[in-house]
Amino acid sequence: MISTLLSRAGGADGDPAPRLVYGADYNPEQWPRAVWEEDVRLMREAGVNLVSVGIFSWARLQPAEDTWDFAWLDEVMDLLHEGGVGVDLATATASPPPWLTTAHPEILPVTATGETLWPGARQHWRPTSPVFRRYALRLVRALATRYAGHPALVAWHVNNELGCHNVYDYSDDAARAFRDWLRARYSTVDALNSAWGTAFWSQRYTDWEQILPPRLAASHPNPTQQLDFKRFSSDALKDHLRAEREVLRELTPDIPVTTNFMVMGGTRGMNYPDWADEIDFVSNDHYVHPGPQDRDELSFSANLTSGISGGRPWFLMEHSTSAVNWQPVNVAKRPGDLVRDSLLHVAHGADAVCFFQWRQSAAGAEKYHSAMVPHAGADSELFRAVAGLGATLESLAPLAGSEREPARVGILYDWESWWASEQDSHPTSLLDYRQEALDWYSALLALGIRADLVTTRADLHRHQVLIAPVLHVVPADLAKTLTRYAEQGGHLITTYFSGVVDEHDHVWLGGYPGALRDLLGIHIEEFGPLLPGDSVELDDATTGTLWTDRITVTDSGTEVLARYRTGEQSGRPAVTRRPAGGGSAAYVSTRLGVEGLTSLLPRLLEPAGVESELPAEARGSVEPVVRRGAGGRFLFLVNRTDDTVQVPGLGGDVLVGATGADGTLTLGPRAVAVLRQPVA
Ligand code: GAL
After folding, report:
1. What is the C-alpha to C-alpha distance for residues 360 and 377, in angstroms, rounded to an integer?
2. Across the strands, what pairs with 634?
3. In the UniProt entry, which residues are flagged as the active site (predicted)?
């Protein structure tokens, strides 16, 4: 789908063959007309074949309620088309114009403490405002009517990063919509009372109208109310996405629709696995947060995006050529980072590599955010690197459309558990769901073992090993699925605070880990969270932090793989494994961190016989990723280090990189090689 988008626009050279997309957000309204032609010329020079236009153009397109100005956009679309650059046209609804917020201040979002988020930045709209919806859809209709049939138009870009700044709105509109959502979920107030456990703290409702979003309260708001508000808020934005999409499908049924997700860092408000079916292809934005695991995090996010996309190729809608503007310190990328970051996304299934943005702004909050054309202009190292990347992506055209080859290990990433495990009034407030999952991922990278991030919607049986870190919310049917998974030969590994609650955030009674207790063959009477700075030693020489459990083994088959050597649980099991049917179920009761997991994992993977596919010299320093399609099997070797790494010959044609006479690949610091091997 993505690799053939460009055939609609004819591609930069009129060639309709599948290729990777290369481009950026393009904001021509920030520049005089004279710059536009230079832009198109430079785009061609850089190999750019698609740009996203109009993302923040509402105020320009509709200067007043009944005044429209499309002339400038007509010209931009025509120019781009003449230059062979396709357009992913935004619906422009991300940032309502001042005339609208002045006439209708009731569209502005309200925080949990009752403060209004005023105009002056962007995304100041309530996802549930009927007034905003009416104006937004009018704009979408006007754009789709105008540009239906324009030869440059290859895709629609709904809004922008839905929920980036406005996912949680506590306004009266939100309260009304929340009640409707709850009515649809529970049908009766009694059912809601039971799901929310309102017998506690005298919270029993007798009428829907009494129910509010979890606004600032005297103490911890009801946990199920909080969890449902998270579910509702994600659904409210999804509903907006659908509403825009419906207008687009009505007017331009042949143009695919996407919207840019934010699978990165701590962005957790939108349940993307649940949104993915609403669009024609998944798009993601990703920005590096500098730190010790920063590129592992990039790989993790790209991998998870692929999982959300069901393994199908996806579209990298935004990343940065160098520094951003919104971190406390905005560091520039080092030589090699631009290409490595881009190709890591491609390795994990991106068929498009796009940036925010094409030309670095001279004014506004993002003027210090890097772009493809920097303030210094095209005669710059950065622009030369950008053009070099364009050429590299062209040479990777044969892999366009290929899918990621499934790995033997899956890591289950579950939004419900993410939301619920980090709520307040828990045994610890220090639990970080994503960090725990990322640590398992980093440990696998350190061992040179490929893994796939998967969601509960995936067919879990594809993986011989399934790691489910902090799988906190386990409804009865998920418990059954996991039991079946193990009994049919899968090897499940889970951790502390898993299996504890059902979908209503009610504890499974009878001892932890609740829904997974029998499968794991253990019983926990009390959690043993650790204070910050405290740690415990295990008898396999690893160290645990954050959490311990008082475990009793309840099944004669359950093996103890490691015991606590120090601390309150000293002498008790810390890591266990129970054979179950053809497979097994293992439990890790503490936070071992990357180092501890790297040392433990080979023992956990042993029953499945999973080992690194890399030669010993490359393990740890090289990340292997595989895509497979009609054009072959594409092996990406990504140097994770700042040193040069030699990889003995692995066979295949070298699409990116260079081999010596003996076939050894030399990967410079942060370099990437891509080999095309015949499909077995
Ligand atoms: C994204 C956004 C872009 C730009 C970028 C800067 O969140 O979609 O418009 O602001 O961040 O990194």
Report:
1. 9
2. 627, 676
3. 161, 318
Rounded Cα–Cα distance for residues 431 and 498 (Å): 12
Written as one letter, the residue type at 376 is A
Q: Ligand 1 pocket, 360 CB below 6 A?
A: no
- Which residue bears the tokens 């629709």? 257
Q: Which numbered atom of ligand 1 lies nearest the CA of 260?
A: 8
pLDDT (tens digit per residue) in 205-243: 999 999 999 999 999 999 999 999 999 999 999 999 999
What is the Å distance from ligand 1's center to 601 Cα?
A: 37
Chain Cα centroid distance, residue 446: 22
The answer for residues whose C-beta is within 8 angstroms of residue 557's C-beta and 6 or more apart is: 521, 578, 579
Q: Of 290, 55, 279, whose CA–CA distance to 161 is shortest?
A: 55
What pTM, to 2 d.p., does this model score?
0.98
- Given a cut of 50, whether residue 331 has pLDDT beyond it is yes
- Please state, in angstroms and rounded to a whole number, the distance separating the CA atoms of residues 488 and 209: 48
Dist CA 315 CA 86 (whole Å): 14
User: 318 catalytic, yes or no?
Assistant: yes
Phi, psi of 458 (to 5 degrees): -80, 165
From 278, 272, 269, select the one nearest 233 (Cα to Cα). Answer: 269
What residue has token string 């949680």? 168
d(CA 323, CA 368): 8
Domains, the chain, in order of start with CATH, read: 2-183+256-402 (3.20.20.80), 409-608 (3.40.50.880), 617-677 (2.60.40.1180)
Evaluate if residue 143 carries a pLDDT over 90.
Answer: yes
* Mutation choice for ligand 1 from 161, 331, 333, 357, CB with most ligand atoms inside 8 A: 161
Q: What is the CA radius of gyration of the chain?
A: 26
Rounded distance, CA 195 to CA 342, Å? 45
- Residue 496: how many CB atoms within 10 A of its CB? 29
The chain-wide mean pLDDT, for the chain, equals 96
